[in-house]
Amino acid sequence: LESRLLTQPWASVCFGECALIAKACFGDTGYVLLLSDLSSVWYESADAEAVGQRSKELNKRLTAHVSSFLHRLANLMSPLLAGQPDPATSFSCQRTAGGLSLRLKSELSGLPFYWDFHCCPAPLEMVSRHLVRPLIRMSLALQHQVQELSSLLLQKDAEIEDYRESGAALSRDRLRTEPFQEELFLQSFMARVRRAGTSSPSAC
């Protein structure tokens, strides 16, 4: 499940009043959930035995196979992670001494359905594998892309200047652009990145 979790994208979600990023993977024998507020990272990995025991504690009126509970959890979490939360499903989030508690409330077969995710701090290797390394790889890829695009814009400016010196003129003046200035562009870009960083998800 954790290997499959690596292929899942992070999603920005709201659990009650908690704004977090999350990813999850559900199977027939368990699930893995990963949450972060970009300051801390929490996770829960539950196997079939843990799911069966918790389902008995939380849903005494419901009797179903563990795989049915897991399938229901996947169906409830998937719309939320896809940015289309089901209004019939409610979530609440609370910080605890040992981690993060996430409570889900919905229905199953016409009866109330409850679930508690008990998340503990994620180990360093898990944080590195799912968050740090992908971010660094993406950052390096974007830097390389910016360099290539900057080089292409400078070549285009040189090409346009050559046309002008040869006597070419624009038929529509509104299409005229100023020469690309790489240093000013990077300064403006970094300023926007810093402003965006101030609106990161906040924990509950």
Average per-residue pLDDT, rounded, comes to 88
The general outline is: elongated
CATH class of the largest domain: Mainly Beta
Oligomer: single chain
CATH superfamily of the largest domain: DNA double-strand break repair and VJ recombination XRCC4, N-terminal
Major sheet description: 7 strands, antiparallel
Q: How many H/I helices?
A: 5
Q: Rounded to an integer, what's the Rg over CA atoms? A: 25 Å
Q: What's the short story on this structure?
A:
This is Non-homologous end-joining factor 1. The chain has 204 residues and is of the alpha+beta class. It has helices at residues 2-5, 48-58, 66-81, 124-165, 182-197; strands spanning 11-15, 18-26, 30-36, 41-47, 90-96, 99-108, 111-121.
Task: Walk me through this protein's architecture.
This protein has five helices and seven strands. It is of the alpha+beta class. It folds into two domains: about 1-120, Dna Repair Protein Xrcc4, Chain: A, domain 1 (Beta Complex); about 135-195, Helix hairpin bin (Helix Hairpins, Orthogonal Bundle). A seven-stranded antiparallel beta sheet has the order 1-2-3-4-7-6-5. Strand 5 and strand 6 (about 100-110) form a beta hairpin. Helix 2 (about 50-60) crosses helix 3. It is elongated and about 85 Å long.
